[in-house]
Specification:
A: 473 residues, Cytochrome-c3 Hydrogenase, chain B, 4-stranded mixed beta sheet, B: 310 residues, 5-stranded parallel beta sheet, two-stranded antiparallel ribbon, 14 helices, binds iron/sulfur cluster
């Protein structure tokens, strides 16, 4: 039995390594996903002014800062017992929607497409793994041209966001009590011009290009199929009750959709570099105690589970749970659902923009309560994100975050269940063990965002690494 | 036009014809390939630029926000122009096509082959406790994990210049916030100071970054202040350039006016945000009626928090 290790996995956010065992026919029989960065945000937050969390937690991720900003502000407003006005809700939706679009475009063209096309013959596009380029040279060239156009499109999506966000990445204007920014007729019409340009890009470049790749790589509708479990917290509130959203929350298991019960979320750490006393905890009372030398552990990611089971998060989960996407679960389904979601959000933004009132600022100064708890559940482009806070003496006394990639790229849990990406890799045939492009395609389809580095080491030598546990048998 | 055929052949085993041959072939087959005149021009430009100065980008305890910010650049030019025409980006964790051992081989090759020549861009601070295990950049070709701590030392020793992109790399940033759980250090604590350009702000301002890269290539080290920051962008406090200076004080977030009194850090923070603004000049923090949180301040976040002084 040989091992293939990819470390670093590039074209993701963060530090991730993937290691797989393959049998004599080059089929993956075990997979391990390793998050290779720990910063300790949850410890750094303790003792600070709760309002600072909105600014600090967005710096967890520069690709989806707005989602952390929103999860944090939701958790705080939940703790403070405050409901923002329609105006603030809409401005927040517009900022978040802009970042979803920027992130989806970035993901397809700049992070994933190079697994299917051959980029320009120069760095950083050479060398590459793609030994299986199936597009005609004119299709390939068209997507390279759109790779460049997409740099402009995602940049414009950020400029659009900054109109109401102050700056991107890392939003300034959102805080408990509302938003600081005041829309004007001028800024609204500027936003609208950007949005029209971006909708045109989505309709005439992004979606056709995803379709081109899906046609050429149709076998990827049955590769990386995952465990059939999808979960979403829901996002883009359409009214102030929080019950009515553009994407509703829910749980999907093999064709059945049910209500999400937030209390069933637990994190496990048997295979993570955290103290075993941290395991099997709901994030409202979970803890995060790094133990870098713990034997048997192989990741800085914990293993979040819902009702004890691993769940896949992301655009495919949201689109499936909402009935917008019904084709299946696979590498290509993830790409198609992501592109179609970008379009759905962009059109919803057109409506929200019309609901904005020019020259109205929506901000209420709130007093930090002495002692409260709060939860903020929302979605990042790559899946559900949750923040759980407790406040004592008007300071943060507890803060736990579960990122989407923590679910998708999680290691095994205490019961030995592999994380979604680990599970999706099993059974995959690797044509060329020196350039395991199939593995990259599966991993990238989840749009992981961990500050991960992926390790692929050569199959022809024994892997000797303290970070690798033997497959659980 | 002279093409650098030798280096291309050596570095890219998959391309077996020379640049000149390839271009000739592309020109004659343009119609069959569906290439327009514009495509050919672009191709020619791309192929001619293999000798562009090499840049290696690595990430430590970061959020990738500085990499995203780079993509947002519009002034002095856009990122596609930077990548195609000004630099040769040998490795970037978010943009490189290659992964795994091929990526590591490439970094090791560039380190040796381009000794003393490349520009190293570092995003994120550098964890030092637990032998650096809190951040692994990749697995070296000898099978050992390459910690960020080791990677910075190995690469910086051979780099011509080192850019600390963003507040984390320049000053430690949020990962270095109390209690600094992974004992991060910032770059000039472990790298020869006279090689390092500090570009604080969270994220790095893309105009600062690209201008500094181009200046290092064209003329060399820019004039730096005592904190290692280019004087061109960091010589004055934000407050000195702020258009809200002298306006009536805002009593509440969201009101137009000077934010002093609500916790504005403009009076402490050296940076030119009021002049360069953000995102193609679309907006900036104070322009959206929010105080400056001092994201470019050396003590960010501890020395400038709580951000709201009310
Ligand atoms: S808003 Fe801030 S930076 Fe501007 S003048 Fe007032 S205190 Fe100074
Ligand atoms: S205005 Fe202040 S908080 Fe905003 S980017 Fe500039 S230094 Fe950072």
């Amino acid at each position: 039995m040989a091992k293939i290790k990819i470390d670093p996995v590039t074209r993701i956010e963060g530090h991730l390594a993937i290691e797989v065992d393959i049998d004599s026919n080059n089929n993956v029989i075990y997979a391990h996903s390793t998050g290779n960065l720990f910063r300790g945000f949850e410890k750094i937050l303790i003792g600070r002014d709760p309002r600072d969390a909105v600014h600090l937690t967005q710096r967890i991720c520069g690709v989806c800062p707005v989602s952390h900003c929103m999860a944090s502000v939701n958790a705080l407003e939940n703790a403070f017992g405050y409901t923002p006005s329609d105006q603030a809700r809409i401005i927040r939706n517009l900022i978040l929607g802009s970042n979803f679009i920027a992130s989806h475009i970035l993901h397809f063209y700049h992070l994933a497409a190079l697994d299917y096309i051959q980029g320009p013959e120069m760095e950083p596009w050479t060398p590459h793994y793609n030994t299986d380029c199936r597009l005609t040279s004119s299709q390939n060239q068209a997507i390279i041209d759109n790779y460049v156009a997409a740099l402009e499109a995602r940049r414009k999506a950020h400029e659009m966001a900054a109109i109401f966000a102050g700056k991107m990445p890392h939003v300034t204007t959102v805080l408990p009590g509302g938003v600081s920014v005041t829309p004007t007729s001028e800024s609204i019409s500027k936003f609208n011009m950007y949005l029209d340009w971006i909708i045109d890009f989505i309709n005439n470049k992004y979606i056709p290009d995803v379709n081109t790749i899906a046609d050429a790589y149709s076998d990827y509708f049955s590769i990386g199929v995952g465990n059939g479990n999808l979960l979403a917290y829901g996002v883009f509130d359409l009214d102030n009750t929080g019950n009515y959203k553009l994407f509703r929350r829910g749980v999907y298991t093999n064709g059945t959709i049910s209500e999400l019960d937030e209390s069933l979320i637990k994190e496990y750490v048997m295979y993570s570099w955290y103290d075993n006393s941290d395991t099997n905890k709901h994030p409202s009372n979970g803890s995060t105690t790094p133990t870098p030398d713990k034997s048997g552990a192989y990741s800085w990611l914990k293993a979040p589970r819902y009702n004890g089971e691993p769940f896949e998060l992301g655009p495919l989960a949201r689109m499936t749970i909402n009935g917008d996407y019904t084709n299946g679960i696979s590498v290509m389904d993830r790409h198609l659902a992501r592109a179609q979601e970008a379009r759905k959000i962009a059109y919803a933004m057109k409506d929200w923009l019309l609901q904005l009132e020019p020259e109205v600022t929506s901000y209420d100064e709130l007093t930090v309560p002495n002692s409260r708890v709060g939860v903020g559940l929302t979605e990042a482009p790559r899946g559900a994100v949750g923040h759980w806070i407790a406040i004592s003496d008007s300071k943060i006394s507890h803060y736990q975050v579960i990122t989407p990639t923590c679910w998708n790229a999680s290691p095994r849990d205490d019961n030995g269940n592999p994380g979604p990406i680990e599970g999706a890799l099993v059974g995959t045939n690797v044509a060329n063990v020196e350039k395991p492009i199939e593995i990259l395609r599966i991993v990238h389809s989840y749009d992981p965002c961990t500050g991960c580095s992926v390790h692929v080491s050569r199959a022809d030598r024994e892997v000797i690494s303290e970070f690798i546990v033997n497959p659980v048998r | 036009m002279e093409f650098k055929e030798k280096s291309l052949k050596r570095r890219n085993g998959s391309m077996r014809i020379t640049r000149r041959e390839f271009l000739k072939w592309a020109a004659t087959s343009a119609a069959a390939l569906g290439l327009s005149q514009l495509d050919l021009l672009r191709l020619e430009k791309v192929l001619a630029d293999s000798s562009a100065p090499p840049v290696i980008w690595i990430q430590g305890a970061s959020c990738s926000g500085c990499a995203i910010s780079l993509l947002n650049v519009t002034d002095p030019t856009t990122v596609d122009d930077v990548l195609l025409n000004h630099i040769s980006l040998k490795y970037h964790p978010n943009l490189s096509a290659v992964a795994g051992h091929m990526a590591m081989e490439k970094i090791e090759y560039e380190m040796i082959d381009k000794m003393g020549q490349f520009i190293l861009v570092v995003e994120g601070s550098v964890p030092t406790s637990a032998n650096g295990k809190y951040c692994i950049v990749g697995e070296k070709t000898d099978g050992t994990p390459w910690t960020m701590y080791q990677a910075v030392q190995d690469l910086a020793a051979k780099a011509k210049y080192v850019i600390a992109a963003g507040t984390c790399a320049a000053f430690g940033g949020i990962p270095g916030g109390n209690p600094n759980p992974t004992s991060v250090v910032h770059l000039d604590e472990i790298v020869e100071k006279n090689k390092v350009v500090n570009l604080p702000a969270c994220p790095v301002h893309p105009t600062h970054l690209v201008k500094v890269i181009l200046e290092l290539i064209s003329t060399g080290m820019p004039a730096l202040d005592g904190e290692g920051r280019p004087k061109a962008f960091f010589s004055r406090k934000l407050h000195s350039n702020c258009p809200r200076r002298g306006t009536s004080r805002a009593k509440k977030i969201g009101e137009f006016g000077c934010m002093n009194g609500l916790g504005c850090n403009g009076p402490n923070t050296y940076i030119d945000c009021p002049l360069v603004k953000w995102n193609n000049g679309v907006n900036w923090c104070i322009g959206s009626n929010h105080p400056c949180i001092g994201c470019a301040y050396p003590g960010f976040p501890d020395a400038v928090s709580p951000f709201y002084k009310f």
